[in-house]
Write a structure and sequence with these properties.
This protein is mostly beta strands and 82 residues long. Helix content is 9%, strand content 46%. It contains one helix and six strands.
Length: 82
């Protein structure tokens, strides 16, 4: 269940992502790669810095530390409820 004053109070998509900072997100890329980890920072181009990243391609998952995801490669991003 979402906390009051969380996503519902945010009016713009970037507000939702700003609320998700320091929380787990899942990022789907155009090349069908799925990245999950802690969202640390983002900019207006949707470039994202993700810590403790798990990168899943086809049937292989690789663990990374901190990665930068270029915004123009992203299809969508979803905050993960805990």
């Amino acid at each position: 269940m979402l906390k009051k004053n969380s996503f519902e109070d945010n009016k713009r998509p970037l507000d939702v992502l700003n609320y998700a900072k320091n929380k787990k997100v899942v990022v789907y890329l155009k090349n069908k790669t799925i990245i999950s980890g802690l969202l640390r920072a983002l900019d207006i181009h949707l470039n994202m810095w993700v810590d403790d990243a798990d990168v899943q391609t086809d049937d292989k998952t690789t663990k990374f530390g901190r990665i930068l995801i270029r915004g123009d490669t992203i299809i969508f991003v979803s905050p993960v409820e805990e």
